[in-house]
């Protein structure tokens, strides 16, 4: 299925709990000056920032996968635009946070992250409102398919995040000598 290639983006744009999944810190940033892993390095994380091309590819794949009809296009358009707008707002907020991060103390860092989460939650609410109207127009077959896609996307995204975390732990482990 073409849609499976876009599930990470789907999870980011469609599932609030997944939207704030952290990027893994580069190995160098996760090291202390002594060369040992810094177990707190991931605490100063920033969410993943999808490229505009990824957002557009996700929108097209989702449109195709859900089988949006000509009659549903009027409801699809605002939903798709919300995804674009949310992606741009997330990008801007992440860039702003990344620019400030080196000068933030721990309290400011947490506050910055909290503000990002609040903004993202608001965006997800507006996206959900647009999707609810679209979903209401779906046939039974489309609804069943959408339900399955979202369920599978959540499970696959969670598994991918766990695999990344395991891989990151393995790459920071000191080899036996």
From TrEMBL:
Q: Kindly give the InterPro entries that the UniProt entry links to this protein.
A: LTXXQ (IPR012899)
Q: Where are the transmembrane segments?
A: none
- Region (Disordered) residue ranges read 26-51, 143-177
Q: Where is the composition biased (Basic and acidic residues)?
A: 145-157
GO cellular component term, pick one: periplasmic space
Query: What keywords does the record list, in alphabetical order?
Result: Signal
- Phosphoprotein: present as a keyword of the record? no
Look up the domain of life of the source. Bacteria
- Bias kind Low complexity: ranges: 158-169
Q: Where is the signal peptide?
A: 1-21
Q: What is this protein called?
A: LTXXQ motif family protein
The organism of origin for this protein: Komagataeibacter diospyri
